[in-house]
Amino acid sequence: MSAGRWTMSSNWAILLAIQLLLLACDGGGAGPVADATATDAVAGDAGSGPLARNPVTRRLWVLDTVKFTRQDPVGIAPGWNLDGKVSDEKDDASCGKPDFKSPAGVDGIDNQFAVLVPIIEKTGIAAFESLLQASVESGGVLLMVELEGIDDLRNDPEVKVTIRAGQGVPLLGTDGKVLTGQTFHVNKRDPATPCGKGALKDGVVDIGPFDIDLPIQVFGKEYTLEMRTGHVRFHVIDAQRIDGGLVGGGITLSSIGKIAKTAAEDQGNIDDIVQSLTGGMGDLAKDATGTCTQLSAVLSFSGVSAFFYPYEITQTTKN
Questions:
Q1: Dihedral of alpha carbons 104, 105, 110, 113, sign
Q2: Which residue, among 74, 75, 76, has the nearest Cα to 102 in the 3D structure?
Q3: What gap in Å lies between CA 301 and CA 178, rounded to an integer?
Q4: Residue ranges per domain, the chain?
Q5: What does the pLDDT look like over 17-32, one tens digit per residue?
Q6: φ and ψ at 147, to 5 degrees?
Q7: Whole-prediction pTM value?
Q8: For residue 207, how far is the Cα from the chain centroid?
């Protein structure tokens, strides 16, 4: 479905849904921030070669930038073929939503959220991405990527990737970005979701599929954003930084609906508007009623090295 076929009422409903998700990320977690002296350090100071001296087989990076991906040019978008099909407007299984081609020329890419980005921008409300980045910098979105079983940060036949969630307010540098080497508490709702195992080749790891329930906050209330058939890919620059990251999958419309329902407690009939129109957004997981129950989405990210406090310290602080 092209961007031009969306109605104005649909545009505003989409805007409301996106803004709800951004608001959900706007509450920073409590907890102190320290330097890299925690005894449960998950990062080290080894370079990009073999970790022979004082080997560190596990590393942690906290996301310092998160952005929505988009078509560039039209029909080209990053991501994965989540459903194993190449769909066009006539594909009933994808509810008539055509797939994209990746920048590398791979067909069948599922990333319908890329269609929505220019629609949101055309409304004149382009601050949604800056709101998302602000939530990263305030600690509202404190997501982390953990790499285990590392023998070499450039080429390794098998490493394990896990998505984690931290808690705390990060310190920022003069450029406004999250500083490297900080220590955070483990979030009480840390998903600790194993994405899988795979090879690290030329510094790049690409893992999936996996399902994950991401903890978020809406007006001080905790809810879950559900991602299915998830994939994650990133480039390990060195021990201090990862870049070129992508994370994507099918976001369940039911979890978006729950967020909207919660927001409606303070914002009137937002849930009615969102619920009445979100059915047209889905492109994955068609159910028995003929409704696609998931919306494919891909976000890009980068990250800097981080640490977790020992579990005992986190528990003491929370108690």
A1: positive
A2: 76
A3: 13
A4: 3-318
A5: 444 444 333 444 444 3
A6: -120, 125
A7: 0.79
A8: 14
CB–CB of 298/114 below 8 Å?
yes
Cβ(220)–Cβ(287) below 8 Å: no
Enumerate the β-bridge partners of residue 172: 178
Q: What is the pLDDT of residue 259?
A: 72
DSSP assignment string, the chain: --GGGS-HHHHHHHHHHHHHHHHHT--PPP---B-TT-TT-------SSB--SS---EEEEEEEEEEE---SSTTB---B-SSS----TT-GGGTT---BB-TT--S-BB-THHHHHHHHHHTT--THHHHHHHHHHHTSS-EEEEEES-SBSS-EEEEEEEEEEEES---B-TTSSBPTTEEEEEPTT---EEEEEEEEBTTEEEEEEEEEEEEEEETTEEEEEEEEEEEEEEEEEETTEEEEEEEEEEEEHHHHHHHHHHHHHHHSSHHHHHHHHGGGT--EEE-TTS-EEEEEEEEEEEEEEEEE--HHHHHHHH-
In angstroms, how far is CA 118 from the centroid of its own chain?
A: 19
Instruction: Give the pLDDT score at 80.
Output: 97
Q: What is the rounded distance in angstroms from the CA atom of residue 39 to the CA atom of residue 310?
A: 7
Contacts of 208 (CB under 8 A, 6+ apart): 80, 195, 196, 229, 230, 231, 232, 249
Q: Are 247 and 205 in contact (CB under 8 A)?
A: no
